Request: fold
Amino acid sequence: MSRHPPRPGAFTEPPKKSLGQNFLHERGVVDRIVLAIAPRPGEHIVEIGPGQGAMTFPLLDRHGALTAIEFDRDLLEPLTAQAAAHGALTLVHANVLDVDLTALAAGTPIRLVGNLPYNLSSPILFHALAHAAAIVDMHFMLQKEVVERMAAGPGSKVYGRLSVMLQAYCEVTALFTVGPGAFRPPPKVDSAVVRLRPRAADTVGIDDPARFAAIVRAAFGQRRKTLRNALGGVVDADTITAAGIDPQTRAEQLAVADFVRLANTVPVEPAAQ
Ligand code: SAM
Reply:
């Protein structure tokens, strides 16, 4: 057994399951992602979870500069050491869910990329959504089933809250799938790369985002029920009808535009005196 100390800048820690560390090692997959992102000069690219740099270093080679947000302290020193040969890496040591992406953008909308920790996919997607105005687009590697849910349309078995919330605010495009063998260690699931492009705020058409979110959550909270029953207590049957929707319909049959119209039809409560 070798007794040599690890060389400075080497990644020495084993992957941490608790942080969703499945590191990409297939160069062909990395190249496809970089090609899909197609960085253009002057853009501010922000990577979530650079890990051991599988996407970070090729992006730096191509683009020259990058900001990356990594939670695992053990990865910071080797990332910084190895990045120097590739370009200018600004490393932020933080839980991405605590990062104010709007402040990070500082007035120049960012392009978000990442092979995300799969256990945090939905919280990260909703966090990004809250900062959509500061984001040009997002390219994420996620569990394939999650990408299918994100891109699903009405009538599909996997169409749900995630589909409606994301599609209301973003154009969602599933790009390609990736097998477990592209990662070390291999995850138990297939993966897929997805592109999200936030819509311009004035084209989304949602009057009250909090009300919209509450209605979508309630509608899919009991997806087998009719809207009249699922939305009881949130929206009455007359309002559903006034929005041009049959209260006997189920949430999974409504298009995103129907949810927007329904939320906009709900009478606004008078402000408390
Ligand atoms: N980008 C690398 C790759 O493709 O090989 C690593 C991807 S690995 C699936 C997910 C990365 O996200 C890990 O580096 C992990 O430490 C990091 N991570 C996990 N939770 C995080 C969090 N809350 N905030 C920021 N990074 C996180």
